[in-house]
């Protein structure tokens, strides 16, 4: 399970032919000029968030996430972004782009607290194998889901493979946005059954109502993969989060008081 804050803007070495290095203090009164990676990105992100909170100390952790999504920039990134069903540009390496301190502070000054979140849940208990077609697909129906603006999506998958590291898992939303939630891992040679929870924010802003489809296959097309069941939980809001939380009377009228989840303060954020 990945902490929700970690997926908003990932910290990953950008696949470009250059890399910006940071000069900082080192051990034993030394200086280093090649500081990079997650170790460098996390304190930078924390500093940007601190400036944002200084501009508006009433911001919640979900407010911070929305501000990051709305204000991140893609200028200068020599990588391809795809647009999800809500028109948000996303990339698996750098999330929604690079955090922009000035943009975040400016947005925070007039930011309205986002509405309370609700959740929708569905599950499927089924045994399917890739022996015949090479591909396993299964779907669950969330047609009655009231989440119109998705934030986080988690899926808990029970599966087994003769070579687990070769198993690929993708998730498709009702808006036809497809996200790879598990890629191949050559050193993962385990063959035991496992139940694992994955989280993604790549469906951010989409309506959750409709069919969600999971697919599993073996990257080498030689190993047997078995799906024994899976469940999905979608978190988000009924009303547009960028318009702020509705009044108490409006919230009661639209049923926002049902299924509200309480967000916990997170410890860190990884930024690319």
UniProtKB/TrEMBL annotation:
Protein's UniProt keywords contain Protease: yes
Keyword annotations from UniProtKB, A to Z: Cleavage on pair of basic residues, Hydrolase, Protease, Serine protease
Single GO molecular function: serine-type endopeptidase activity
Residues of the signal peptide: none
GO CC annotation, single: Golgi membrane
Domain P/Homo B: 113-240
InterPro entries in the cross-refs: Galactose-bd-like_sf, P_dom, Peptidase_S8/S53_dom, Peptidase_S8/S53_dom_sf, Peptidase_S8_Ser-AS
Entry keyword Hydrolase: yes
Record-level GO BP terms: protein processing
Pfam family, one: Peptidase_S8
Family statement drawn from the similarity comment of this UniProt entry: Belongs to the peptidase S8 family.
Protein name (database record): P/Homo B domain-containing protein
Biological source species: Dreissena polymorpha
């Amino acid at each position: 399970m990945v902490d929700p804050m970690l997926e908003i803007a990932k910290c990953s070495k950008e696949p470009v032919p250059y890399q910006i290095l940071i000069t900082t203090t080192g051990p034993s009164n030394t200086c280093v000029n090649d500081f990079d990676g997650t170790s460098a990105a996390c304190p930078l992100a924390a500093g940007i968030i601190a400036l944002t909170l200084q501009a508006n100390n009433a911001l919640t952790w979900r407010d911070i996430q929305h501000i990051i999504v709305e204000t991140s920039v893609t200028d200068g990134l020599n990588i391809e972004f795809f647009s999800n069903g809500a028109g948000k540009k996303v990339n698996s390496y750098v999330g929604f782009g690079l955090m922009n301190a000035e943009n975040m502070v400016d947005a925070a000054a007039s930011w309205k607290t986002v509405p309370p979140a609700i959740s929708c849940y569905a599950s499927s208990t089924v045994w399917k194998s890739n022996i015949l077609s090479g591909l396993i697909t299964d779907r669950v129906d969330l047609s009655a889901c009231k989440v119109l603006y998705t934030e986080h999506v988690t899926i808990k998958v029970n599966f087994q493979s003769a070579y687990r590291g070769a198993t690929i898992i993708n998730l498709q939303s009702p808006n036809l946005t497809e996200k790879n939630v598990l890629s191949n891992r050559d050193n993962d040679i385990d063959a035991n059954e496992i139940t694992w929870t994955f989280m993604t924010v790549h469906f951010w802003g989409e309506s959750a109502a409709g069919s969600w489809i999971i697919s599993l296959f073996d990257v080498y097309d030689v190993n047997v993969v078995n799906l024994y069941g899976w469940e999905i939980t979608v978190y988000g809001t009924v009303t547009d989060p960028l318009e702020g939380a509705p009044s108490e009377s409006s919230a009661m009228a639209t049923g926002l008081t049902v299924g509200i989840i309480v967000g916990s303060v997170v410890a860190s954020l990884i930024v690319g």
